[in-house]
Amino acid sequence: MTTESLSITLSDDQVARDAGPINDLIHAVGSVVVGQEHMVRALIIGMLTGGHVLLEGVPGLAKTLTVTTLAQGCHAKFSRIQFTPDLLPADVIGTLIYNPKDGTFSPRKGPIFANIVLADEINRAPAKVQAALLEAMQEKHATIGDTTYSVGDPFLVLATQNPIEQEGTYPLPEAQVDRFMLKLHVGYPTRDEERVIIDRMMSTDTHAGINAVVTLDQIARARQSVNHVHVDEKIKDYIVSLVHATRDPASVKASWSMDLPKLIEFGASPRASLALARAARANAFLEGRAFVTPSDIKAIGMDVLRHRVLVSYEAEAEGITSEDIVRELFARIPAP
After folding, report:
1. Spatial distance between the Cα atoms of 43 and 37, rounded to a whole number of angstroms
2. Listing from the earlier edge strand, what are the strands of the sheet with 53-56?
3. C-alpha 230 chain-centroid distance
4. How far apart are CA 330 and CA 316, in angstroms?
5. Are 272 and 308 in contact (CB under 8 A)?
6. Which residue ranges form the domains of the chain, and what is each CATH number?
7. Beta partners for 126?
8. What DSSP letter does each residue of 239-296 carry, written as one string?
9. 157-201: per-residue pLDDT in tens?
10. How many whole angstroms separate alpha carbon 330 and alpha carbon 336?
11. What is the DSSP letter of 335?
12. What is the reported pTM?
């Protein structure tokens, strides 16, 4: 029996059963992190699909707090890597240690060998470190000496970066940015949310965190359910139409309000189509449905596409961003 035939038999009751622990995790994270519901939800989608997530925002918006709290809520191995300009690849993946007693070398695994890895301020690391992280993100393994080791399952890299700082930073290569399934722009809280933050966080007592509410087995069952969420043929065509329009907007029969062929330098690759389908499945799962609707595509589409559509010099001169182009695509391409 194929995965697609299994997906049709998945019921909403099964989705509700497997999503229960995941919703408990979302509630637990929300008891610590004020607001930022979209960021928490996107991190959960990354966990359910095995997709890495890049968080971009100015300092002080609870990016690191959210990731560490999410890790606390899981019975999973967590590690944090604070990226700095003097970091070496061995500091990430590990190295060989010499034992003078018997004259042998033994591997000492680095922090990349964990279920959830927080790569804090990832754009502060030089190219060699980013390349080592890239191998683990893409291949799910890392090489120490002559031996290759699996990094773990599940394996999720949640990276943060500060967009306003240029001193001592190394911009991420486009190929590495594309490895992230989702890129989130983390914004400021509302006035009411900030008032709650003051009430909750102004004490100088160290925050104790949250207790683990989800096991790896429960996460694995939830991921299996996500894999069986049904995606209709029309939904697949809609995904392909959106992604194809980023590469060749002139071939799409739509009344564009802007000159997209001149504004897009490079469009999204097939990796974007896969990411959009997987993320939409996870979003439907969190909504308690066993099937994907166009609303799931629109709910997560910006986070999937914003870093995969590269704008031209003309777009930059006119102040048009990739987000503006993605909004145009969703506005003009009809949903099924």
Report:
1. 10
2. 78-82, 116-120, 156-161, 53-56, 182-185
3. 22
4. 21
5. yes
6. 32-202 (3.40.50.300), 229-332 (1.10.8.80)
7. none
8. HHHHHHHHH-GGGS----SS-HHHHEEE---HHHHHHHHHHHHHHHHHTT-SB--HHH
9. 988 888 776 666 777 877 778 889 999 988 888 888 888 888 877
10. 12
11. P
12. 0.86
